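call fold(seq) -> tokens
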Amino acid sequence: MRSLFSLPLALIAGCYSYQSVGQVDTASPEPGKRVELRLTDEGGRALVSQLGPDAQTVDADVVGSDTSAIMLAVWHVEDTHNRQTQWRGERVVIPRGAIATLRERKLSVAGTGVLGGLIAGGALVAYEAFKGGGELEGNGPTSGPGQGQQ
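ret:
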């Protein structure tokens, strides 16, 4: 029965994917949106004092943007050696010229539907398997004390 309660939680969490928002120099992601940006090689070198050495990918929430930069609340930075550093929402301003690609996190309706279907199916199977109080049919004794005597 607990798995039935996990279905709404899984659907709230959902499945997400990152999708391109178009040209970096004209993109205008809304504040509060989760984004992933990949830095140019020069951008990674220029931002070493803010993001650390060899920074390549930044996972963050958009705080604001203008024509020259995007202000972010940073959650993760991945370097060129695939090492990820956890952040706590520290704010960093990234010049648009330092950004190679910018992608926004979007809910994957199909992926979330498949996940929900799998969880619901598993919950139904578990419910059917255990609804008899945990006893399996046909495996108990065929006669007990006082039974079978006439």
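The mean pLDDT is 80.
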